[in-house]
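Purpose: get a first structural picture of the assembly so the mutagenesis plan has something to point at.
Setup: three entries, given in the order below. No constraints added.
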Amino acid sequence: MYSGFLATPPTTATYDYLFYWYLFFGTAASVVVISLLVFFMVKYRSRGDGGPEIVHKTEGWKVVLVTVLISISILSAAEYQTFASFGNIEIPNDPNAVHIGVQAFQWGWTFTYPDGKTLLNNLTVPADRTVILNISSKDVFHSFGISMLAVKEDAIPGKVNQLWFLVPDPGVYKNAIRCFELCGVGHAFMVADLTVVSQSAWDTWMGS
Amino acid sequence: MTDTWLKRWLYTTNHKDVGILYFFTSLYFGFVGAILALLMRAQLAAPGSNLLSAAYYNQALTMHGLIMIFWFLSPVALGLANYFVPLQIGAKDLAFPRINAMSYWIYLAGGILAVLSFFVPGGTANAGWTTYQPLATLALGTGPTLAYLGMVLLAASVTLGSVNFMVSIIWLRATGMTLSRLPMFTWFMLFTIIAMLFAFPTLIAAFVLASTDRILGTVFFTSTSIQPSILWDNLFWFFGHPEVYIVLLPGFGIIANILPAFTGRPLAAKNAILISTGLVVIPLSFGVWMHHMFLTGIPVSLQGAFSIATIAISIPFDVITLSFIESLVRGRVKFATPMLFALGGVILFIIGGITGVFLSSPVLDRAFRGSYFVVAHFHYVMVGAAIFGIIAGIYYWLPRMTGRMYNEKLGKWHFAISFIGFNVLYFPMNLLSDMPRRIFTYPNQGDWATLNAMASVGAFIFSGAQILLAANLLYTWFRGPIAPANPWGSPDLEWTSHVEGIAPIAESGAAPPTGGWIGQLSGPPQGHETQSRGGAVGHYGHLSSRPIQISIGALVFLIGAAFYPSISGVAGLVVGAGAVVYAFWGWAKDDIEGKFVVPPEDVGDRWPFASVPKLKLGIWVFLSSEVVLFGSFLGAYIFIRAASAQWPAAGSIHEIPLGTFNTLVLVTSGLTMFLALQSIRKGDRRGLLTWMGVTFVLGAVFMGVKVSEWFNLGGSGFVLADPAMSLASSAYYIIVGLHGAHVTAGLLVMAYLMKKTSMGTYTKDSHEAIENFGLYWAFVDIVWCFVFPLFYLL
Amino acid sequence: MKSIVAVGVWAYMVLAVVAEVETFYLTTSFATVASVVTVLATSQAVAVVLFYMQLKDEQGSLRLFALIPIMFLSALLIAMLASLGGK
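Result (structure tokens, whole complex):
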């Protein structure tokens, strides 16, 4: 299982909580249901002509009712958790946020910074500040994803989509950014680096 | 003898023969799809491998998806349905045997186009089975065009097939076969067919627009000012999500159908299963498609709404699954091969279904979208549940189809190796949630190499296991011991010809103990010569050369279209169109000369459409699917209008007075057609001829005005080549042209009906054809009521 | 159904077409034309389906069946247009 999430960013924290919530109930449900199947299959296996009386009724509304009730409770709780995590996909109204333009092309990424500077295949962001990416595409449908931050948004020609994240500490992450939609023969190599720098380094770089 | 043999298979209209044809053809396509999958898994077995180039890999993944879903999964189920639905409901055949044969041949023609597309320079389609735009349109070459036209043909075949099955299941049930007694497989095929009926028209619309972009240079998916990607996603996934259930439900139907045979007790909560599927899954399946578009920048509120709908659709499936499990309780479970595959399918569905719940969350989708987690999910559902169910059905019904028993030991090995291989293949993909799908190579990073190696090993185990299936099929066919008439002790009509409360049917359901594939041949072959003339011997010998002719014509026409505007392309268009017209003319001639007469069905149970005649029901069902077809085109147009900032002002392009005149002409033809029908209802054949003549003239005037409008528009610069006009003209010519094609087809049918009227065919009491044509003509009228204001006034 | 009813339906169809065109000439408001056209075209469709296609004389189940595609299509149209809106 993917274990490369950065632990501290808020998007991954929210994501992790939600994912493990789903994973716990999902696993529990599969284990219970599959065990039931195997248990009944073995318990009621044919042992020649003898054995317990076979039922002939077809109605099983009791089981249906119980199934529906349990399903509805677990699934509504799951949906509630998802809605509670919508902060991950709603763009925060943070006046201090850094806006960076992302243009996908066959096959790479151009990042445009607030001072008009552009970098190819290198997303540099300040640490501990909300970063909002305005993602679009020059040619075909791409999908911009940073797995370790659990953020992803499609890059679509003629349309600007937004995503946000925040990384608390500086660091350099090679090939952390990948394209997640088939976009032609270069799809496999459509990667970019994520560089997180300190606020002072960012200010210096913006000034240069 | 050979001649008769060949003729039988090429001209057959018998449902069992057509079922066998579907069955073997789809197995062939499944084989092709599997080879493509193995190529991919071989390439991905190790990081940095270069067995396949990126270009070949993209073609392999695209055609693997298209071929497996459209030319293997659905058709193999349709093959079984062809064979067993009529038997299960006690019908002699499907409602429209020639259209059934035509569905098969058109399906095959589509498949031939898809296979041909590999062999043209540049290779075949390479944008994934989802055909995301604008990548798919920007990829030049004839190969993708051929593949996409193949898709259009396939979708047309499915639409014809759905109408046919729908009418058959409603109309051809034996007396006593009430809906409450309908076997589960037939029930689930009915649900599948309803979903097909309304989902595939959108696919046709999407691929027609994509194909005209490639062939004629329209700009639906290349003009970036209208968010073409979003347009495609909506059309494609509106079809695509119901398609998941279209693929899944036949397998579920088989599981539900065969469980009682191996538990000795009835299915638990049968009605709950039917209500869950028919009244919840099918309607809701048309309202969840945007979970495929969570990341496309749609509003968060819309993501929330579709997330709720998506998670809600798992509730009916919980009911179905738990009822399957409850069906074991207090039974006597026998582990024959079909039962093993059925239970295995349920287990795999549980895993696939639960990963689907993860994907209903837009927040979690930020990690899973476009990754191997998605690949694992849909393979667990579409291979695990659907294919395991279908394999269960194959083993279950082989004795009925061949008269011989399969080898049980081999079947059990087949199951064991398949089940293990399947999980070794797909379970690792659940863990690869950070690896993008559809990359042809990957770095040695994290656990990617290990998990991919595992998956590749599993792929070879799983596909190797299918050799056992092939071996078992051959064994059964040639060596299998003669099967008892009802080996499973099933209460269903396909095994026992006599069921209490149901009228016995003419064709005994019991398998004759002969061996070989049991199709229409049950008497000596010389019977065919007489049968093909006038149908004296009964329905089973009815041969028709028209379905295959139509299909060949369509194949040649579309190959021509793909190579348009080269000379050979134009030649293909002309020859193909000629062949289609010739074949339809022959079809009509067969009817006029009484060469192909479908005998009237015995009166049976026809609820809920008891008072609607067969053909009329067929027309209504067909038109309901046409509503979605035109609705999708007009919906695409409305989307384009809403998305584009600029549009030529209304009245600046089209002449409104002329358009109004033409609208009034068509509206009036609706009245005259109705008066034609009123005349023959009174037995007034002369009045029928007169009013129909007036209708014909009005229709011809309408088309004449249309054509002159097109010439004038072309002359005045309303052309695709003008960037300011390209979008408006694309939409106008294609959608109005499609309507024009419907009017033209109507004119041709009217000519035929007038000929038959003058021959005295229609009387006061027998004029169904006139009434049915009236329905079609009124529908064409309705479409124009929307097209006119949308294009001329807005 | 009497032929006179059919003629009446025809008269309504003609009137609706004329009303659509008149609305177009009388106003420059796109929204007005769009709503008038939507209402009138839908009413025309209903008239044709009920009378010329005689759905009003058919079984209730067939009438219900005819509504299914309309329901699905409405879902497609509404959500499609909604998907155009930004975040």
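The domain at 10-88 of chain A is CATH 1.10.287 (Helix Hairpins).
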